[in-house]
Amino acid sequence: MGTGTNVELKYEISQNAYIKLVLHSLRHKTAAVNGVLVGRLSPKDEGLVEISDSVPLFHSNLPLLPPLEISLVMIEEHYVAQGLSVVGYFHANERFDDVEVCGVAKNIGDHISRYFPQAPILLLNNKKLEALSKDYISSEKWKDVIDFDDHLDDVTKDWLNPGLFN
Amino acid sequence: MVTKTEERELNELENQVENGGGGVWEYLCLVRKLKVRRSEIVLKHGLSILNDSGKRSSLGPDEWTLYEQVAVAAMDCQSLAVAQNCIKVLQKKFPESKRVGKLEALLIEAKGMWEEAEKAYSILLEDNPLDQVIHKRKVAMAKAQGKPSLAIEHLNKYLEVFMADHDAWRELAEIYVSLQMYKQAAFCYEELILSQPTLPLYHLAYADVLYTIGGLENLIAARKYYAATIDLTGGKSTRALLGICLCGSAIAQLSRGRNKEDKDMAAPELQSLAATALEKEYKQKSPAKLNLLSSALRSLKLS
Question: Which residues touch B116 (CB under 8 Å, ≥6 apart)?
């Protein structure tokens, strides 16, 4: 996703945003999962994208439009009040050794970049997940992560995951 | 497929078992009956029974079923040594058994030795060409190797013979969706709706696929299937209610400038009923998100 400028793009992702996405992948180990990155262009450095949060989206039927459209509308509505917006896309493939950026990821990434041209696609390296996940697995925090799929099945479940890091 | 009641029962048992409250055998039987995938928990607690000779012998003939269940769970968790040990026990007890032979082939598959597994399954199929489980393993192997077109080919051949296997039709639909082959996915859901017209899940999935394909006719059809879902679920499907609103907005956009008297397209009552139902649901169950929902619905009406 290029810009038109000559500024080199850098991305900074907050620990919580990153961990949320990892926990989401751990919770749905046998499926492909995706999510959006939330943040803004740094007010001090136009080459820096600050990713301050993330929202896990789905763990089934990722390419279907209706749940995706609703989730993006609601997520934008929520974050616009904080001066933030959807600035990128996260995807984890179903298979362990699959490192391809699939059609779905490209389509959603393209869509997001129409509104935020510097949007990155973050693809999970499943092999490295194994090494990373020992701490998180033992704490079983991944059981608490709620995504948009969960919310649509039961609206009492909060996709903002407010208590996750307490 | 599992009903909500069954899922609740399963989760309650699971919590009990995980928190040391007993009920392990009951849980393991329920998992077997519902055919759900809870491999880590099955492995942990199943093994604890098998490793305790007292508990093991109190199972009687069920002991062998447990070995089988734990073997499969172990393979799913890549604990291949455990699986191998369980299979050895079964081999000793039931030499020449075809059922154990299936487990041996499954272990070869779990090791990622695709060609050998293929051979093992072919041999098993020679003796029993109508074994559905083995046919499905071929689909699973194709998927695992990242060969979705081969998986589709196998699944289509399977469905020519076993056309009443709803789970297989659903699996095929989901593979098509993952490849963005929506028209083919739609065909699968049509088959499912024809055979089980009172299951809201299929109407909902079909509507989602139609909406994704897009175009005025498909949007109008999608709206009908969302409406059918609402009918079949007594208005409880949040996804279907949202689907109605999305369709309304998309249809309005596409039919701008067209003949406004076309009754098929405008369905303002349906849309406002759906919106009201959603707001009521959020007010009751998720009040913190009500404002978000309302402004989302408003922006759908404007777009």
Answer: B108
Give the rounded percent of residues in chain B with a pLDDT score beyond 70: 97
Tokens representing B113 are 């030795």
Cβ(A149)–Cβ(A70) below 8 Å: no
Q: Which residues of B touch A77 (CB under 8 A)?
A: 292, 295-296, 299
Cα gap B106→B75, rounded to integer Å: 8
Distance CA B216, CA B266 (A): 12
* This prediction's pTM: 0.93
User: How big is the CA angle at A106 (ends A102 and A110), to the nearest 5 degrees?
Assistant: 175
Kind and range of the H or E run holding B248: helix B238-254
Cα Dmax for chain B: 79
CA closest to A96 among chain B residues? B144
Q: Which residues of B touch A65 (CB under 8 A)?
A: 208, 211-212, 214
ipTM for the whole complex: 0.92
The token pair that represents B166 in the structure block:
């709803």
Q: Does A6 touch chain B (CB under 8 A)?
A: no
* Integer Cα distance of A111 and B78 in angstroms: 38
Of B144, B146, B211, the CB nearest to A65: B211
Whether chain A has a CB inside 8 Å of the CB on B281: the answer is yes
Reported as a single tens digit per residue, the pLDDT across B169-220 is 999 999 999 999 999 999 999 999 999 999 999 999 999 999 999 999 999 9
Contact A30 B211 (CB under 8 A): no
Q: Which 3 state secondary structure label does DSSP give B261?
A: coil
Residue range B240-292, pLDDT digits in tens:
999 999 999 999 888 876 765 565 677 888 999 999 999 999 999 999 999 99
Across the interface, do B180 and A74 touch by the CB < 8 Å criterion? no
Q: Which two tokens stand for residue A40?
A: 């803004």
